[in-house]
Specification:
Layout lengths: L1 E9 L3 H17 L4 E8 L3 E8 L2 H18 L4 E14 L10 E9 L2 E8 L2 H18 L14 E5 L11
Antiparallel strand pairs: 1-3, 1-4, 2-3, 2-7, 4-5, 5-6
Helix pairs in contact: 1-2
């Protein structure tokens, strides 16, 4: 299975952008072979779009298709920073560890980088998870084996895997 990750800066209301994507982009994704799931998360200045696909080719097809759709429907609201397509190495489903507050987890590798994407019930749990993962890396990996580029905490605006509709506030 493969993931497509896109980061965008945005202006305006993130919830409204997610609603537009849910109504327009999600049906397009669902019509492309190999579609598995779609999530949009946001923090103060960035939207992260994550979709899961059966093959890398399916993800590439989605990447091309969505670029056209975004240009036609959201060009005044979002600016693409980057996209990556990589193999999904780990992925959990809803309810994996409800006591800990985790709702989803995925690791995707692409072009020498690893993206760890987790979804928590609260921002506080996400911040705590960041600290725990930094400590784990320091305790379990050799210096230089992995370098943290950045961490971000934001709100999930849309997720087909988690049953979050745009505007519903996860």
């Amino acid at each position: 299975m493969h993931g497509r990750i896109a980061r965008y800066t945005y202006t305006g209301d993130a919830q409204e952008i997610a609603r537009i994507a849910e109504e327009g982009m999600l049906p397009i994704f669902q019509g492309i072979a190999g579609f598995k799931a779609y999530t949009i998360a946001a923090n103060d200045d960035t939207l992260i779009s994550f979709s899961a696909w059966e093959t890398a080719e399916d993800a590439e097809e989605a990447n091309k298709t969505v670029a056209t759709w975004v240009a036609e429907n959201l060009a005044d609201k979002v600016q693409l920073i980057e996209t990556e397509i990589g193999e999904i190495l780990v992925s959990t489903a809803l309810g994996v560890s409800t006591k800990a507050g985790i709702r989803g987890y995925s690791i995707t590798a692409s072009q020498g980088e690893i993206l760890s994407f987790s979804i928590w019930e609260t921002a506080e749990q996400a911040e705590a998870a960041n600290a725990i993962s930094r400590d784990w890396v320091a305790d379990n990996l050799e210096p230089g084996q992995i370098e943290l580029i950045e961490t971000r905490v934001g709100e999930v605006l849309l997720s087909t895997a988690l049953g979050v509709a745009a505007g519903s506030r996860a």
